[in-house]
Every structure is written in C-alpha cells, then in structure tokens.
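Researcher: Before we compare anything, I want clean individual predictions. No alignment, no superposition, just each chain on its own. First chain goes here; please echo the sequence and then give the structure tokens.
Model: Echoing the first chain and its structure:
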Amino acid sequence: MARVIVRSWRETYRGVVPDDVLDDPGFESARERFWTAALTDERYRRNRIAVAERGGEVIGVAMSGPVDDPALEWDHHLYVLYVVAAEHGSGAGLALLEAVVRPDEDVALWVADPNPRAQAFYRKHGFVADGAVQVDDGVRDIRMLRLSADRRRA
C-alpha cells in the first residue's frame, strides 16, 4: 500500500509537490508506518480501507472515514484514493471509491489543484467543488462534496 501511494505521488504530483518531498529516501517508510497504524490502531477502526489488485499486485488504495463534527454538511470523508498511472481508466478507481464510500453518505474530499484528471474523475462521480481552498506544504487543494443519492434527488 505504501509503495502504491509513493509511486502515485511521484507519477501525479511531480511539479506540484516539491521534489525533495517526493524524492525523500524516508518517504516510503513513513507511508509504511502510516498504513500499519491505519490497519491496526484503534483510532482508525471506523475507517474503511480497500485495495485494488491486478495479478496479485496492489495497484490502488483507498480510505474513508466518518466525520465527527455535526456542524459539517457531510458525514464522511474520502481521505485517500490513488491508482498507479498505468491503471488509470481501468475501473480500479471507481471500484475503490465504491468500496469505501456508500451512495447514502454525504462525502467530502480534498484534491490537489491542479490535478485535472482526479478532479474530472470526482466530478464524473457526483462531486462538486464547494469553493473551499487550503494550502498545505505549498500544495493548493480544493474541497469537493458529494451529497447522498437521496439528497441529490430532493
């Protein structure tokens, strides 16, 4: 899982995220520590985690979790969804999204801007930018929301 994240970041964010972050020799081990905690630590127990595989090799990973702030408009957050570039368009991204987010949930996510491919993917699957922007470590992110299927019909 860590290798997929690191590979995806390097394929997707070169020129957006500083090279010293992407090329840091400790990047993969830091991601390994995170995923070990995400899979074993009690504080992540309510999260949903899924991987996509092809030929026994992990090609994508996703994680979502509940939001505990009742003042927010949404009740779930998509924290991670990455698929290696060679598998873009294969359906792995949609399968991962559907594995960690249910249609009856109002969901938010942050996506790098610019990242037109990811933004188009999320728009195709019902997410809309709500105007919120954050900058973290020099990377600009926009927030996108998707209302539950019931709320979209209302």
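Researcher: Okay. Second chain, same rules.
Model: Second chain and its structure:
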Amino acid sequence: MAITNIAKSLKLRLPRRQKPAAAGGGGTTPPKATTKEEEFRQVFRYLDANDDGRISAEELRAYFVSIGDTVSYEEAGKIIREFSNAEDSLLLTFEEFGRMMELRGDVEEDTLLKQAFEVYEVEKGSGCITPEGLRLVLRRLGDVKSYGECADMIRVFDLDGNGVLDFYEFQKMMT
C-alpha cells in the first residue's frame, strides 16, 4: 500500500498489523493492531514539521526532497489545492491528507493491474488476453497448459462471451 511505501521512504517504523488473538488463554495482551488511519496519522505528523495540524506546500516539498524527488512550490500547492476543501488554501488537513492517500493507493493498484494485464496481452495494444496468449505466457512461467485449458480458464471470467478477456474482465478476475 502507498502509505507503507511513504513510511519506508521516511524511515518511519510503523507497528505491524496483527490479527486479533484468539479468545481465551495466553494471559498476555497482544500488541495493538494498527489501522490505516493510524498509519496515515503517523506519516501526517512527520510531514507536519511545525506541528500546526496542517501540511503546507513547503512541508510537502520537503517530503519529496527527502525521497530524492523534486517538486516546485507551485506543484506542491497544486497538489494541496486539489485535495483541500477550502478555496485557495495551501494547507492540507489530516482528513484531506487521508483522502489524498486513499486516492494515491487506488491509482497505484490500478497501475499495477494494468502492468499485469500487459504481461498477458501478447498482441500488444489489442486490449485483450487470448487463450493462445495466456498459454504462451504460462509456458514462459513454467506452467504448461493446452489451448483448451487456457480457453476454459478465460471462459470463467469472460463476461461478454467473446472468448477473450478485456481489461475490465481481467480486473474482475483479479479482485
């Protein structure tokens, strides 16, 4: 997830998310599990250098510099204005920061899904995964399947019945 990557780039130590312990026995209390909101809050506090409860364009620029990227003051302001509820605000509240991080996570997931789709899209730019394309990619990965087996695999997720998977069907399959 995006927040974990940001925390790593900032060298923050986020507590590990843990599953709740089974009821009964043990006698010790398991460490408190962190939530996404707690992780966002920890990164937000780090970025909020002057501790005023808001992230300024300058503070956002400092974050990008810390990860080896450069963003102009104007670009940082544009990012903040895009997520800020206040007109002409160059300050980002925690709630606005949370929305920004949620959106960033969705964008990263979508990008990864598109990259995975492109691996299976043997005829680049065709917009579909064919049984033959699937068979070739699986063979390269060491999983030898027949054309018929690949056609059967596609048929399960082929919503429009055209014998191939488009990106939307691939997305449904992966989620």
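Researcher: What stands out in the second chain?
Model: The beta strands are 55-56, 91-92. Additionally, The chain has two domains: 2-12+34-107, 121-174.
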